[in-house]
Amino acid sequence: MSTQALTGLRDYLFGTLNIGNLYWLANELTEYAQKKEAQHLKPYTMEEINAMIDQAERESALGLGQESEEMFRELEEEFAREEQEELEYAEAV
């Protein structure tokens, strides 16, 4: 979205929302940004990656872990929840 469009949206919101609504919106935007930032992956060293692989292989040998079908189902559910949250957020704004 262009800066001009964002500026227009900001001006529209400032002109139509009361102070309580503006504080609510600011809080929602802050929480949303924090959630998105938390989703970014941190970089790992090769030693950390190898240690995680070794741990996973040990757990697999013990029969621990999660079937890939279950993992993909959970991921699809998580993505659907996130998409729904984003839609609800967009409707609230």
Which structural class is indicated by helix and strand composition? Answer: mainly alpha
Number of strands: 0
How many H/I helical runs?
4
Instruction: Give helix % range.
Output: over 70%
User: Secondary-structure element sequence?
Assistant: HHHH
Strand content: under 5%
Q: How big is the Rg? A: 21 Å
Head-to-tail CA distance between termini: 15 Å
Unreliably modeled segments: none
Shape category:
elongated
Q: Mean pLDDT, nearest integer?
A: 89
Biggest beta sheet attributes: none
Q: What key phrases describe this protein's structure?
A:
93 residues; single chain; mainly alpha
Short description:
The protein is mainly α and 93 residues long. It has helices spanning 3-16, 19-38, 46-61, 68-92.
Structure overview:
- The protein is mostly helical.
- The chain has a domain of 36 residues.
- It is elongated and about 60 Å long.
- The model has no long low-confidence stretch (mean pLDDT 89).
Q: Which helices and strands, and how do they pair?
A:
Elements: H1 3-16, H2 19-38, H3 46-61, H4 68-92
